[in-house]
Amino acid sequence: MQNIFKKIKPSFMGILCTLILFSGCEKSEQKKAPENKNKDPLKQQFEQWKSQQDPKLLNEYYEFMTQYLKHPPSLMELTTTRNYMPEQCYSKRFAIPPKKYWENVVGSLKLVEKLNQNDFYQHYTITAIYRNPELNQCVKGALRSKHLYNYAVDFHVLAPKETDQKAREGLVKKMCQFWQKEGKIFKMGLGVYGNNRYHIDTQGYRTWGKDYKSSSSPCLKTTK
Any idea which architecture 40-221 has in CATH? Predict the structure, then answer.
């Protein structure tokens, strides 16, 4: 019996060690999984909001908006305000505008896309379009903000890199030159906020800078 046990024991111990090893690996993988899920909390918030909306309305809105564009933005870009805001405003950042406002932003989106296709910038992401009244009040936005009526597009140019000051200044100059030459035709409102962040609407020929005043716009300074 002792001889038999000696023959079986190493085999049994090997299996036991193998089971322990695999069990350890599984626990290690399970610990890493939550980290991967939490990498993009904003996207998680969007997906949660989306799951609570009428899918038919979401699809109708997306199809309406994208029919005018060659390279339409994502649904998340169309419905999410990603500009800086206090944490207490986060829950109000997602919204579909009322249907009567849907068409309002088409001209602005087409203008943003036109600049992209004309090589003013290669890559950009939309950070705000429609801002519902609750969010506007929470962030202390302008009472007559064009975002309230779905007229405006805020976007962030992803290239040139923000760390390249010369490239940033070159882009600002190009954007201002376009506004000066063709802005009246498009009734273009151009906000230049710095760090490759811009606002475009088609509700009047005007420009402003970081403090939302025309006096701080680099486009007016370049005309002197």
Answer: 2-Layer Sandwich (3.30)
